[in-house]
Design goal:
About 30% of the residues lie in helices and about 25% in strands. The protein has about 220 residues and is an alpha+beta fold. The longest helix has about 30 residues. The protein starts with a helix and ends with a helix.
Length: about 220
């Protein structure tokens, strides 16, 4: 009888341990704030091996009070883990309360607790990898605003048609001096003047001779 009693006690302890291992527990639930691209999400994973149905409710917190109910979802966990996702564009360093209610009897649930501690989001938002407006803008000007080509060396060095040269123009007196060269009438004038001198001298000579002849008579 003692042997049977010991065996029965051992079996009861084993069944109790197995039942405890299979019972749903708040420690089997975990929450995380993640990014799905540039959109924030909150995920809750249920690793309850007993497969007890549970209800997950997420609240946005502020100074220890519920500010907004983000959402509520049903989940049936497994040892490998089953994850539900709440689309929530969370802000950096925000706080969320995740409440778990598990068990078919809602009046006496197996679990009716919050995941502790409360979920705190990362210090950087999901849009940190997006380029800024200054980075997204292209530095290449549009086709209609392409700078004009630089003038070639021949175009920049040649003077425009119809403009005067940079060489200084000759003075007015230089042109008059040039006109008094070999093609002028200076020689002709000198010859006429010489002839007039000779004629004048001859006239004086003959006049003196006639005045002398008149005196003698």
């Amino acid at each position: 009888m003692q042997i049977l009693g010991v065996a029965a006690a051992s079996s009861a302890l084993a069944l109790s341990a197995a039942g405890s291992a299979l019972a749903c527990n708040i420690s089997e639930f975990s929450a995380e704030a993640k990014c799905d691209g540039t959109q924030g999400v909150i995920t809750v994973t249920d690793k309850d091996g007993s497969g007890t149905p549970a209800t997950i409710t997420v609240f946005l917190e502020n100074n220890g009070a519920d500010v907004q109910k983000v959402g509520e979802q049903e989940v049936t966990g497994s040892r490998e883990g089953v994850t539900v996702t709440f689309n929530e564009d969370w802000k950096p360093n925000a706080e969320y309360r995740v409440h778990v209610t598990a068990g078919k009897n809602k009046n006496r649930p197996i679990v009716d607790k919050d995941i502790t501690p409360n979920l705190t989001t990362p210090s950087e938002g999901c849009s940190k990898g997006e380029p800024t407006p200054s980075q997204s803008e292209s530095s290449t000007p549009p086709a209609d605003e392409t700078p004009s080509a630089t003038p070639s060396a021949s175009e920049s060095s040649s003077a425009p048609a119809g403009t005067s040269s940079n060489a200084p123009s000759p003075a007015a007196g230089d042109s008059n001096l040039a006109e008094t060269g070999a093609n002028s009438n200076t020689g002709l004038i000198a010859g006429v003047a010489g002839a007039l001198v000779v004629v004048g001298g001859g006239a004086v000579f003959f006049g003196m001779r006639r005045r002398g002849a008149s005196t003698k008579g």
